[in-house]
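User: Please write out a complete single-protein record containing the residue sequence and its fold in C-alpha cell form, without commentary.

AI:
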Amino acid sequence: MVDVFSGRLLVNKDGRSVDPEEALQNKVVGLYFSAGWCSPCRDFTPVLCDFYTELLEETQPPAPFEVVFISSDHSAEDMAGYMHAMHGDWLALPFHDPYKHDLKKKYNITAIPKLSHKDNVYTKSFVTLPITQLSHNSEKVLAADLKKSNTSSLLHYKFN
C-alpha cells in the first residue's frame, strides 16, 4: 500500500505530516472512505475505532495494521472535527489533496462508508467491502493476513 501514497504526505489526527513510506511499511492498510455528515459513517466509525484499538493496543505484539482516512467532508474544518470527535489514532490523506478523487475512482467508491484493504506484505488483490456487510451481520468478518515473526497468520475480527 505504500506505493499508493508514494510521493505524498499523510497527516495524523493532530494535523502533523507523516511520511507514508515509514508509517505504512510492512503493514496491512485499510483505506476508510467516510465523512462526518454521513449518518452511516458516524455509525460505523466507532466500530472501526474498536477494531483498530483491539489490533494495536490490546494484542501483543501489536498487529501491523494501519487505517488511512480518505475524507468526503465538505471542508478541512469538517474533516478535522470529525477526526477529533470520532476517529481512532489513524492517518489521513490531507483534505486539499486532489488525489482523494483519484483513489475514489481507482477503487470504484460510489458510496460511503467503505473500508478497503490490501495486504501490503503479500500483495493480495484489493478488496472493497460495503460497510453494511460488516456492521449489520455479526457473523461477517474482516479477515486480514498479518505478518508476524516472518510467518503469516489469518486473523478474523468480528464486527458487531
